[in-house]
Amino acid sequence: MIQPRFLGSLFFLALVLVEIAAYGLVVSNLGWLAAFSIGIGSIVAGVFVLKRLGQSLLQAMSQSAASATSFRFDGLYAGGFATAGAILMILPGFVTDLVGLVSALIGWRAWLIPAQGDRTPPGAGRPADKTMDLRPDEWSSQ
What we know:
Blueprint: H1 4-30, H2 32-64, H3 73-90, H4 94-112
Helix pairs in contact: 1-2, 2-3, 2-4, 3-4
C-alpha cells in the first residue's frame, strides 16, 4: 500500500518534471525573453488578484458587520477559487500558472455573473423582505 507521504512526494516530483518540460517547450518555441516575461507577468497578475481579493474581503466584512446575513457562501466559494488561483500564479512554472489562471477565472466568473437566485427582471427590483419584527409580548403561538 502506498503511504500518503510517499504519494505527495511522488506528485511533487512529477510536477517539477512537468514544469521543467513545459519551461523547455516554451523557451524553444518563444525564446528566453518571452518565457521570462510570461513568468514575471504571472507573478504580477497573481499579486494583483490577491490584492483585489483582500480589498473585497475587507469590504464584505465591513458590510456584514451591519447585517450578518449579507455574507453569502457563494462569495466564499468564488473567493476560495480566486485565492488558490492567485497563489498558483505566483508560484514559478507554466503549468501552475495555467491551473492558477483557470482557477482565478472560475472565481472571477462567480463574481461577475450573479447566481440564478439573484437574477430579477430589469426594473422589477428585489422582492420585499417577508421578515416581521415582533415585540416580546407578541411571541406567543396563539
